[in-house]
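Exercise 3.2. Students should predict the tertiary structure of the chain below and write it as structure tokens, then compare their answer with the key that follows.

Predict this chain's 3D structure.
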Amino acid sequence: MGTFVLALHSHLPYARGAGRWPHGEEWIHEAMLGTYLPLLALFHDLREAAVPYRIVVGLTPVLIEQLADRDVDARFIEYADDQIRRAESDVRRFMDQSDQERAALADFYLSSYGRLRRAYVERFRRDLVGAFADLARSGHLEILTSAATHGYLPLLDRASVEAQLRVGRRSTRRLLRLEPTGIWLPECAYAPGLERVLAENGITHFFTDAALLPGHARPAGERAHRRGQSELRRWPPHEERAAAAIVPGDTDVDVMRPYYVADSDVIAIARHDKVSGQVWSAVMGYPGDPSYREFHRKDDQTGLRYWRVTDVQTGLGDKQRYVPGSAAERARDHASHFVSVVRGALAAANTNGSDPLLAVTFDSELFGHWWFEGVDWLGFVLREMAQGGPRVATAAEYLDRDPPRQRIALQEGSWGKGNDHSTWLNDGTRWMWDELGRLAREIEDLRASPPRDNALRERAAHQAARELLLAQSSDWPFLVTTGQAADYAIERFRVHAQRLRRAIAIARGGEETDDVELRSMERADNPFPDASLLDFESAVPQVAQGSRGA
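Answer key:
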């Protein structure tokens, strides 16, 4: 019946200690309580029930650095306790108002929050990273690494791409104690030449958007955003292998087959856009069902959610009461429908003697946080497939059993709007990329003449490397473009740039009197303790950055 691979991409921007509600570290707390804890509880429950499931989970290095942080851990307990108090308050308030239905729903939240807090403390011993690693060791999870801070690789200089990959993979090894071979490319962003750098850093496979496959249609207007946008296109030229070995670019390749990328041994797996659309589609996706919980309306006193979607045309003020039992039934129905869609697509696949592969990819934070019932839906899907197929596998398992037979030249792009780079590079964010180019050159100058035999200055050089990685996060231009938290993102970007330049100044001529300031920066931005200037050493001569004008 073919093979089904489901991949979840887990990522949050670096927000440790950088503000609370509505933007900042509370993003991490919300995701821990709403997504990561429920998912881990599901995965561990399935394993204990001997359900033969397999799943791929991408954990970005900057995310696991924060999940493993002692300060984040302590403040998460405070956050969970506060949510429990809010639910307790609502139970009393609604009972006083003789609103039995809403009191029961508040009690539902109270029970759920209490159960998740106990799981965090007792079952997982306040170690979510270790809980993921345990599932990887038992073979139920394949964990993907990523660029250190989710940097948008096609728009970075070569040395920074090297540093993002080196530091990111090292962080995954250190915190999870496993050797990652697969990667989640930030924003699924690819440009020709990237596969070579991945191979040099021990990466064997990645997921991509189907629109980047040769011959696949891309949204109208895509061409207008591509000219001159990729730094990878200006990397030093390399000798091309025989073009006859690569599937012609005008050929519509099969989305249900993996392919070697260009002349490398790195493999691309495309997500099945139509099947993924059963969840992702803004019009037809399951999360928009009337029975599911409405994310955008909160109680004006406690912030808890007591309403259901009702109808997408219905204003927030007119939403109807949420009924968990009805929502749970819809999740079961939607899981059965999804499994039937997967089975139908695999049955119709043109195998040509190979085992068809149907891969779907989603953001982890969709499940539980944005789509409250999504974790239950996922559990139903995995159980139903375990009973009647198709075979469920990790990407690494499938590729070991049935490696690719052809090569393709992927198109440049991402899984953003238009499948190009414009969500991250546009008139509103171009100044960020110009600044990142200047910062990269300043780091390169420092790397060419690093501090020696001075502990303070060497520490400052390490901090400068960390600050550049943090400034390169794709989250900052994304938040500016979408307007979700533009002012916050601009401030965060500028703070990292300022700290980077101050760290460089201390690295060049700092005295003991600068120790207090340096310690403050080290406490504020502490991920990747082993990051250094050496990580920015490129395997090839550097090419000066030029204009990215489109």
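Discussion points: Strands lie at 3-10, 55-59, 141-146, 182-184, 205-208, 259-261, 267-270, 357-363, 391-392, 407-408. The chain has two domains: 3-418, 425-536.
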